Structures are given as C-alpha cells and as structure tokens.
Amino acid sequence: MARSLHKVQKQISKKHGGKPTALHENSRHAQRLRQAGAREDKLARIATAAARSNQIYIDRVAYFQDALAESTAPLSESQLQNLVKEFIGRDDTELAELRAAQRPGRPRSKAEENIQNRIDNESKEFKAGFWAPDVTTEDGLEHLKRWGGSWGGLNTLKFCRVVKDGDIQKSSFPPKSLS
C-alpha cells in the first residue's frame, strides 16, 4: 500500500472520481490522507534537522578549502594548528563590534551569545581534538581542492583530529565523538 501523500491522493481521487468532497471526516480514506500528510511533514522535519546539523561540518571544510586555495604544499602540524585557531577566531571582529554596541548594564544580544557559544564549543573541541580535513599530505590537499561543496562529497576527503597541545591523529567521516 502506498504511503507517500501524492500516491495516496492519487489512489483516493481515482476511486472517488476526483471529487474532493466525496470523503467524510472520519472515513478510512480521510484517515489515510491525514496519516500520509503527517508522514510527509515528519520526513521533511527530519531532513531539515539533518541538513542543519550537517551544515556545521560543510561550513568548516569550506573554510579550510578557501583558506588553502592558493596553497601548493601540504601543511605542517603547527601550520594546521594555526589554521584551526584562525577558524575558531573567524568572528572575533563581529563579536567585538557587538560588544562595543552593547549598552552597559544590558544583557548580551542573541547574536553575541550564539557567536560566544560557538567559539566556546569549538575551543573545547580543539583541546580534545578538532575534526578537520587532513591537509598534511599532498593527496589530502588535492582532494580538498577538488571537493564540490556538498555533504555527499565529504566521504572522498581524509580527516584528522587536531589537538591544541598535541599532535594530529587520523579520523573518519562522518565525525563521531573522538574517532
């Protein structure tokens, strides 16, 4: 039995001759339409939430791709750590502007809170192991330069965990806790 809204509508309209008023409120066909509509809504919500959570990683890899567009040689560990520090501090000027515009004694703005929370989360991640594309090899750098900007294309890249005070460890895609 069909479960998508379009197919259910098509089957029911075929059976009732295309008349939208042919159904009463609690008929089994009306219930099928409601269930199919609710399922479509649920699937759309899930897809939107997944895309929103994936966007963080897409933006991260896009930043590294833009920063290394002119680079021809792979980065050393210290250069990669510096690039991660630049990534974490990418909104420092905007944060300073928001703080300067804030009146004394007033609570922080929502934008300032969001930026500060993101910086805090990324700093914590950097201490434990910041998930980033592995650009310490020629192969990793070339794959990053050829990446098309989509979530599906990330599986062709190599990734690593960059630790603030330590070394670089290989990681996997998609990012897990400390893979």
TrEMBL record:
Residues 1-18 have a biased composition (Basic residues). Residues 1-38, 100-119 are annotated as: Disordered. InterPro entries: Tma16, Tma16_sf. One of its GO terms (cellular component) is nucleus. Residues 109-119 have a biased composition (Basic and acidic residues). Belongs to the TMA16 family. PANTHER family: TRANSLATION MACHINERY-ASSOCIATED PROTEIN 16 (PTHR13349:SF2). This is Translation machinery-associated protein 16. It comes from Lithohypha guttulata.
